[in-house]
Amino acid sequence: xxxxxxxxxxxxxxxxxxxxxxxxxxxxxxxxxxxxxxxxxxxxxxxxxxxxxxxxxxxxxxxxxxxxxxxxxxxxxxxxxxxxxxxxxxxxxxxxxxxxxxxxxxxxxxxxxxxxxxxxxxxxxxxxxxxxxxxxxxxxxxxxxxxxxxxxxxxxxxxxxxxxxxxxxxxxxxxxxxxxxxxxxxxxxxxxxxxxxxxxxxxxxxxxxxxxxxxxxxxxxxxxxxxxxxxxxxxxxxxxxxxxxxxxxxxxxxxxxxxxxxxxxxxxxxxxxxxxxxxxxxxxxxxxxxxxxxxxxxxxxxxxxxxxxxxxxxxxxxxxxxxxxxxxxxxxxxxxxxxxxxxxxxxxxxxxxxxxxxxxxxxxxxxxxxxxxxxxxxxxxxxxxxxxxxxxxxxxxxxxxxxxxxxxxxxxxxxxxxxxxxxxxxxxxxxxxxxxxxxxxxxxxxxxxxxxxxxxxxxxxxxxxxxxxxxxxxxxxxxxxxxxxxxxxxxx
Length: 492
What we know:
Helices cover about 40% and strands about 25% of the residues. The protein has about 500 residues and is of the alpha+beta class.
């Protein structure tokens, strides 16, 4: 089909136009009257001066000359500065070739504020001897079409820009996008969604893949919540916080949000598409767990301080002969307790480790100083070779020994005057073996059924930070603890 789509069908096949010369033929006047009101702008320009021989009403209106008779006027004078480079090039090609020429969507400025657009076709006018004697101009006003195309292009560019902004916003929020077509079962996952689930960008996705990634302990609850969205009365919205398991076994925490879209099918509201996002919140969950652990630690430490202060007061009261002696002794114990607490502060707060290297003997004396009865120092026995402890390991080892001493003061040998604590350590085969033995304290009736926070903290420090192992032996006459640590690690 010709590019001049608004043209009447009879104009599509025109290749030339011949003027009749016979006296009895179709006269120019009759032809002019016929073409005056057709819905095309039509004009005939004749050589050699390129003067108008005819211009119908629509052509004259296009040049803002609807009331003028253009017959005999030179085309260049009439068109003037309305001609554009595109129209002039079209005219030049016609003159050079004598063949039909076309131009689509050519702008034409009627006034400085008004621009219309035209599809133009130039056809040769020949006499009976085939000599070129002029040209026939056919033009269709396509302003609405051009403006519609421009508006469509503008909207497409705007939509592309909006999509780009949305993509950037989604990328900034690190959201994964997904869609489930309820009717067909088709599933779409964005690249970020796949990344969160530990899948490559070209990995296949399906309901089964999603199901296999759900953490076993969360799977039933997640499936049940998603299934409720199939009911239009559910409200169609979902927010879940749950775990997933990546193919390599790593566990991640995510927040899933989704909205079900419903349509009326067969007179009933049916679920059609489920659109959703996921956000990886693993780091946030770890931070919350760390903060919760610190809260427990703080609570544990405060309780311990009160218990030890109470024990010190009772112990000092039993041994002091005068209030003044009690005050001096108690003050010394509390200062020693503060010094011991300062040693373990980095382990609690996660701050810098000790500033210098130390030794097992030095750490023990610092930790146990608050509990030593100056009038009866034999309550605590410390024996072992000189073993250096590096600044990095010193904080964790101090925390372990401080916790054992705190428990001994609260419940064990250091909680009573006749109790005795013996600490011995040896070195061999690259290992430090330390034995903590309590005697003559309150009898231990049975092994504790559950580990307290302090015991968990000790085990975590020994096995985690110090790469060692620890055993508890809850004997009736007193607790016995065996700690084994690699010498090369505690020296670093």
